[in-house]
Amino acid sequence: xxxxxxxxxxxxxxxxxxxxxxxxxxxxxxxxxxxxxxxxxxxxxxxxxxxxxxxxxxxxxxxxxxxxxxxxxxxxxxxxxxxxxxxxxxxxxxxxxxxxxxxxxxxxxxxxxxxxxxxxxxxxxxxxxxxxxxxxxxxxxxxxxxxxxxxxxxxxxxxxxxxxxxxxxxxxxxxxxxxxxxxxxxxxxxxxxxxxxxxxxxxxxxxxxxxxxxxxxxxxxxxxxxxxxxxxxxxx
Length: 236
Ligand code: NAP
Description:
- The longest helix is centred in the middle third of the chain and has 29 residues.
- With about 240 residues, the chain is an alpha/beta fold.
- It has a seven-stranded parallel beta sheet, with helices on both faces.
- It is globular, with a radius of gyration of 17 Å.
- It is about 40% helix and about 15% strand.
- It has seven helices and seven strands.
- NADP nicotinamide-adenine-dinucleotide phosphate (NAP) binds next to helix 1 and helix 6.
Protein backbone atom coordinates (compact mmCIF):
# COMPACT_ATOMS: atom_id res chain seq x y z
CA UNK A 1 0.00 0.00 0.00
CA UNK A 2 1.36 3.46 -0.86
CA UNK A 3 1.86 5.94 1.98
CA UNK A 4 -0.44 8.91 1.36
CA UNK A 5 0.60 10.80 4.51
CA UNK A 6 1.71 14.29 3.40
CA UNK A 7 5.45 14.90 3.95
CA UNK A 8 6.20 17.04 7.00
CA UNK A 9 7.65 20.47 6.23
CA UNK A 10 11.43 20.33 6.38
CA UNK A 11 13.45 22.73 8.55
CA UNK A 12 17.20 23.09 9.04
CA UNK A 13 18.10 24.40 12.49
CA UNK A 14 21.76 25.36 12.90
CA UNK A 15 23.28 25.20 16.39
CA UNK A 16 20.67 22.58 17.28
CA UNK A 17 22.96 20.39 19.37
CA UNK A 18 22.65 22.69 22.41
CA UNK A 19 20.89 25.69 23.90
CA UNK A 20 18.32 27.69 21.94
CA UNK A 21 18.77 25.74 18.70
CA UNK A 22 18.17 22.45 20.47
CA UNK A 23 14.94 23.80 21.99
CA UNK A 24 13.84 24.99 18.52
CA UNK A 25 14.60 21.55 17.03
CA UNK A 26 12.59 19.80 19.76
CA UNK A 27 9.67 22.23 19.41
CA UNK A 28 9.47 22.07 15.60
CA UNK A 29 10.18 18.33 15.66
CA UNK A 30 6.60 17.75 16.79
CA UNK A 31 5.37 18.36 13.24
CA UNK A 32 8.43 19.00 11.03
CA UNK A 33 11.21 16.96 9.54
CA UNK A 34 14.19 18.52 11.32
CA UNK A 35 17.69 18.72 9.90
CA UNK A 36 19.75 19.06 13.07
CA UNK A 37 22.89 21.22 12.85
CA UNK A 38 26.00 21.04 15.03
CA UNK A 39 29.76 20.58 14.81
CA UNK A 40 30.01 17.00 16.08
CA UNK A 41 28.22 13.82 15.05
CA UNK A 42 27.80 12.86 18.70
CA UNK A 43 26.14 16.13 19.74
CA UNK A 44 23.83 16.12 16.72
CA UNK A 45 22.88 12.44 16.99
CA UNK A 46 21.76 12.93 20.59
CA UNK A 47 19.10 15.40 19.36
CA UNK A 48 18.19 13.41 16.23
CA UNK A 49 17.50 10.42 18.52
CA UNK A 50 14.91 12.45 20.44
CA UNK A 51 12.88 13.33 17.36
CA UNK A 52 10.38 11.25 15.34
CA UNK A 53 11.62 12.53 11.95
CA UNK A 54 15.10 14.04 11.78
CA UNK A 55 18.52 13.81 10.14
CA UNK A 56 21.98 15.15 11.03
CA UNK A 57 23.71 18.19 9.51
CA UNK A 58 27.27 18.11 10.81
CA UNK A 59 29.50 20.99 9.72
CA UNK A 60 31.75 23.67 11.11
CA UNK A 61 29.88 26.58 9.57
CA UNK A 62 33.04 28.72 9.73
CA UNK A 63 34.47 26.40 7.08
CA UNK A 64 33.14 27.22 3.59
CA UNK A 65 33.87 23.79 2.08
CA UNK A 66 32.32 21.84 4.95
CA UNK A 67 29.27 24.08 4.79
CA UNK A 68 28.84 23.64 1.04
CA UNK A 69 29.27 19.86 1.25
CA UNK A 70 26.66 19.57 4.01
CA UNK A 71 24.21 21.90 2.24
CA UNK A 72 24.58 19.83 -0.91
CA UNK A 73 22.89 16.92 0.86
CA UNK A 74 19.66 18.89 1.35
CA UNK A 75 17.07 18.46 -1.42
CA UNK A 76 13.93 19.99 0.11
CA UNK A 77 13.64 22.85 2.59
CA UNK A 78 10.72 24.88 3.92
CA UNK A 79 12.51 26.81 6.65
CA UNK A 80 16.04 27.71 7.70
CA UNK A 81 16.62 28.73 11.32
CA UNK A 82 20.05 30.20 12.06
CA UNK A 83 20.80 29.64 15.74
CA UNK A 84 24.53 28.70 15.66
CA UNK A 85 26.52 31.52 17.15
CA UNK A 86 29.36 32.40 19.50
CA UNK A 87 30.07 35.10 22.04
CA UNK A 88 33.41 36.86 22.21
CA UNK A 89 36.22 35.81 24.51
CA UNK A 90 38.06 38.07 26.90
CA UNK A 91 39.67 40.46 26.37
CA UNK A 92 37.02 41.91 24.05
CA UNK A 93 38.01 45.56 24.40
CA UNK A 94 39.04 47.22 21.15
CA UNK A 95 42.39 48.12 22.72
CA UNK A 96 43.14 44.48 23.50
CA UNK A 97 41.21 42.08 21.28
CA UNK A 98 43.32 40.45 18.56
CA UNK A 99 42.24 40.52 14.90
CA UNK A 100 41.65 36.73 15.02
CA UNK A 101 38.94 37.18 17.65
CA UNK A 102 37.04 39.70 15.51
CA UNK A 103 37.34 37.27 12.61
CA UNK A 104 36.21 34.22 14.63
CA UNK A 105 33.01 35.87 15.88
CA UNK A 106 32.08 37.71 12.68
CA UNK A 107 32.84 34.63 10.58
CA UNK A 108 30.28 32.45 12.37
CA UNK A 109 27.69 35.03 13.41
CA UNK A 110 27.56 36.90 10.09
CA UNK A 111 29.55 35.47 7.18
CA UNK A 112 28.46 31.86 7.74
CA UNK A 113 24.81 32.95 8.01
CA UNK A 114 24.99 34.78 4.68
CA UNK A 115 26.82 31.91 2.99
CA UNK A 116 24.50 29.13 4.18
CA UNK A 117 21.46 31.25 3.26
CA UNK A 118 22.88 31.80 -0.24
CA UNK A 119 23.42 28.06 -0.71
CA UNK A 120 19.89 27.16 0.38
CA UNK A 121 17.90 30.05 -1.14
CA UNK A 122 16.94 28.16 -4.32
CA UNK A 123 15.19 25.49 -2.23
CA UNK A 124 13.60 28.08 0.08
CA UNK A 125 12.31 30.07 -2.90
CA UNK A 126 10.83 26.93 -4.42
CA UNK A 127 8.99 26.25 -1.14
CA UNK A 128 7.99 29.91 -0.52
CA UNK A 129 9.69 29.26 2.78
CA UNK A 130 11.06 31.09 5.79
CA UNK A 131 14.42 32.22 7.12
CA UNK A 132 14.60 32.91 10.86
CA UNK A 133 17.63 34.57 12.44
CA UNK A 134 18.30 34.17 16.14
CA UNK A 135 19.81 37.60 16.69
CA UNK A 136 19.99 39.17 20.19
CA UNK A 137 19.13 42.22 22.26
CA UNK A 138 22.77 43.00 21.47
CA UNK A 139 21.66 43.65 17.89
CA UNK A 140 19.88 46.79 19.16
CA UNK A 141 21.62 47.90 22.35
CA UNK A 142 24.75 49.92 23.08
CA UNK A 143 27.39 47.42 24.23
CA UNK A 144 29.42 48.00 27.37
CA UNK A 145 33.22 47.72 27.52
CA UNK A 146 34.40 44.40 26.10
CA UNK A 147 31.08 43.70 24.35
CA UNK A 148 31.85 45.34 21.03
CA UNK A 149 32.79 42.26 19.03
CA UNK A 150 29.61 40.29 19.78
CA UNK A 151 27.42 43.38 19.36
CA UNK A 152 29.11 44.26 16.05
CA UNK A 153 28.31 40.77 14.79
CA UNK A 154 24.66 41.07 15.81
CA UNK A 155 24.32 44.59 14.34
CA UNK A 156 25.77 43.23 11.11
CA UNK A 157 23.42 40.26 11.22
CA UNK A 158 20.51 42.70 11.57
CA UNK A 159 21.67 44.63 8.49
CA UNK A 160 22.03 41.39 6.52
CA UNK A 161 18.54 40.36 7.66
CA UNK A 162 16.93 43.65 6.58
CA UNK A 163 18.57 43.43 3.15
CA UNK A 164 17.63 39.77 2.67
CA UNK A 165 14.01 40.51 3.63
CA UNK A 166 13.71 43.18 0.92
CA UNK A 167 15.54 41.08 -1.67
CA UNK A 168 13.23 38.10 -1.14
CA UNK A 169 10.01 39.98 -0.29
CA UNK A 170 6.96 38.14 -1.61
CA UNK A 171 8.93 34.91 -2.06
CA UNK A 172 10.72 34.00 1.18
CA UNK A 173 9.77 35.46 4.58
CA UNK A 174 12.60 36.68 6.79
CA UNK A 175 12.23 37.01 10.57
CA UNK A 176 14.67 38.35 13.15
CA UNK A 177 14.26 37.22 16.76
CA UNK A 178 16.03 39.18 19.49
CA UNK A 179 16.20 37.36 22.83
CA UNK A 180 17.56 38.83 26.03
CA UNK A 181 19.57 36.55 28.33
CA UNK A 182 18.74 32.87 27.83
CA UNK A 183 19.70 30.02 30.15
CA UNK A 184 22.29 28.25 27.96
CA UNK A 185 26.00 27.39 27.98
CA UNK A 186 26.71 30.75 26.31
CA UNK A 187 25.34 32.71 29.30
CA UNK A 188 26.99 30.41 31.84
CA UNK A 189 30.37 31.11 30.15
CA UNK A 190 29.70 34.84 29.81
CA UNK A 191 28.71 35.37 33.42
CA UNK A 192 31.56 33.22 34.73
CA UNK A 193 33.96 35.49 32.80
CA UNK A 194 32.30 38.55 34.35
CA UNK A 195 32.65 37.00 37.81
CA UNK A 196 28.88 37.06 38.39
CA UNK A 197 26.94 34.33 40.19
CA UNK A 198 24.72 32.42 37.75
CA UNK A 199 21.00 32.32 38.54
CA UNK A 200 19.17 30.29 35.88
CA UNK A 201 15.75 31.58 36.98
CA UNK A 202 16.71 35.13 36.00
CA UNK A 203 16.98 34.05 32.37
CA UNK A 204 14.58 33.16 29.59
CA UNK A 205 14.14 29.44 29.05
CA UNK A 206 15.31 28.28 25.58
CA UNK A 207 11.80 26.83 25.10
CA UNK A 208 10.34 30.35 25.31
CA UNK A 209 12.52 31.46 22.41
CA UNK A 210 11.58 28.31 20.49
CA UNK A 211 7.90 29.29 20.88
CA UNK A 212 8.60 32.57 19.04
CA UNK A 213 10.11 30.65 16.11
CA UNK A 214 6.93 28.60 15.84
CA UNK A 215 4.90 31.83 15.99
CA UNK A 216 6.87 33.23 13.03
CA UNK A 217 6.56 30.04 10.95
CA UNK A 218 2.85 29.72 11.65
CA UNK A 219 1.94 33.33 10.79
CA UNK A 220 -0.70 33.29 8.04
CA UNK A 221 0.96 33.50 4.64
CA UNK A 222 0.01 37.12 3.88
CA UNK A 223 1.73 38.17 7.15
CA UNK A 224 5.39 38.28 8.16
CA UNK A 225 6.75 38.71 11.69
CA UNK A 226 9.72 40.85 10.74
CA UNK A 227 11.32 41.54 14.14
CA UNK A 228 10.46 40.19 17.53
CA UNK A 229 12.06 41.03 20.87
CA UNK A 230 11.70 38.66 23.83
CA UNK A 231 13.25 39.47 27.20
CA UNK A 232 13.20 37.99 30.69
CA UNK A 233 10.73 39.52 33.12
CA UNK A 234 13.53 39.77 35.66
CA UNK A 235 15.63 42.94 35.18
CA UNK A 236 19.33 42.35 35.86
P1 NAP B 1 25.12 27.69 22.92
O1 NAP B 1 24.29 27.05 23.98
O2 NAP B 1 26.53 28.05 23.22
O3 NAP B 1 25.05 26.76 21.61
C1 NAP B 1 25.75 27.17 20.48
C2 NAP B 1 25.36 26.28 19.31
O4 NAP B 1 26.06 26.78 18.14
C3 NAP B 1 25.76 24.84 19.51
O5 NAP B 1 24.79 24.01 18.93
C4 NAP B 1 27.07 24.75 18.73
O6 NAP B 1 27.36 23.46 18.22
C5 NAP B 1 26.80 25.68 17.58
N1 NAP B 1 28.06 26.16 16.99
C6 NAP B 1 29.08 26.80 17.63
N2 NAP B 1 30.11 27.00 16.77
C7 NAP B 1 29.71 26.48 15.58
C8 NAP B 1 30.35 26.34 14.31
N3 NAP B 1 31.58 26.83 14.08
N4 NAP B 1 29.66 25.72 13.32
C9 NAP B 1 28.42 25.22 13.53
N5 NAP B 1 27.78 25.31 14.70
C10 NAP B 1 28.42 25.93 15.72
O7 NAP B 1 24.46 29.07 22.42
P2 NAP B 1 22.96 29.61 22.56
O8 NAP B 1 22.89 30.41 23.80
O9 NAP B 1 21.99 28.54 22.29
O10 NAP B 1 22.95 30.66 21.37
C11 NAP B 1 22.27 30.40 20.15
C12 NAP B 1 22.09 31.71 19.40
O11 NAP B 1 21.31 32.60 20.20
C13 NAP B 1 23.41 32.45 19.10
O12 NAP B 1 23.34 33.02 17.84
C14 NAP B 1 23.44 33.53 20.18
O13 NAP B 1 24.18 34.64 19.76
C15 NAP B 1 21.97 33.84 20.33
N6 NAP B 1 21.59 34.43 21.61
C16 NAP B 1 21.88 33.83 22.80
C17 NAP B 1 21.48 34.42 23.99
C18 NAP B 1 21.78 33.81 25.32
O14 NAP B 1 21.62 34.52 26.33
N7 NAP B 1 22.16 32.56 25.41
C19 NAP B 1 20.77 35.64 23.97
C20 NAP B 1 20.48 36.22 22.73
C21 NAP B 1 20.88 35.61 21.57
P3 NAP B 1 28.27 22.39 19.06
O15 NAP B 1 27.40 21.85 20.17
O16 NAP B 1 28.62 21.37 18.05
O17 NAP B 1 29.44 23.18 19.59
